[in-house]
Amino acid sequence: MQDVEFNQLISQIKDKLFRLSKRLLVSREEAEDATQEVLSKLWDRRSELAQYGNMEAYALKMAKNYCLDQLKSKRAKTSCLACEIVDRDPGIQKRMEDREVWQNLERILFSLPEQQRIIFQLRDIEELDFEIIATVLEMNEVAVRVALSRARKTIRSKMINVE
Amino acid sequence: MKLEQADILLDKYFKGETTLVEEKQLKLYFSSQKVADKHKKYEDLFRFLKQELEADYDKQSLLKPRTSRLYTMAVAAAVVGIIFSISYYYLKQQTVEDLGTFDDPEIAFRETQKALNLLSAKLNKGVESVEYLSEYEKSRKIVFKN
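Structure tokens for the assembled complex are given below, as produced in the milestone run.
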């Protein structure tokens, strides 16, 4: 893959990689580290990328694997990930209610099992096709839909209970 | 979007059966001012989805030198290791008759302290602290025979 092509690919997917990493790792800093790791690995493999099929799916799968590994090694320590759900960039949220709503949704999403979290992120936020999501997770599309449905229903019930 | 259509789509949504186009329609519906009362409880969710797309990867981070922290920690570890080995040597020497060139253990102790203070004072300066190792070496060679 030419460098120009590579840079174009990177600019399109870096934000998705970051957002997925943040959905899994919660901390912005860790998500940035993870994204940087994945981008540099992609750079190392740039000449072979063509053989890996859909490159967006490949990159997202790399990010997913890296983040899940990070989570596994964190489980050994007792750090509280949920505690890192802090305020977002002040520009995006102004009202106190908005912040609480956002924090609440972040917590609900964090309470989902990782697989459901990934599927929800890639479908509801990144608006990706089921084909790509299935590739990223190495599941079939039916299984993805089932997990997605579970995730959405859990979110619904947890949101409604709060009110 | 009419109430009935929204109802149908929402039902499909929670069953995981909506297409991307239908999901976009739902997102549009919830950002409009015409959300039915019975659907208002889902407004926050769909607004959240829209907002989340705004989080982006800060390019600045790409420029941050990644090795600096590792390097500083490596230097700090080396310095700490040196301090421990000095303490070890000093403690060991106390049980040995031959205290090197200093007959008076007090003077030997003071010289060691000077050496240690010199080192610890430079602890935070990363690379520069390594330069002071030569100064420390001179003092150390005076105090201990080896």
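Chain B is about 70% helix and 0% strand. Residues 7 and 39 of chain B are 8 Å apart (CA to CA). Further analysis is deferred to the final report.
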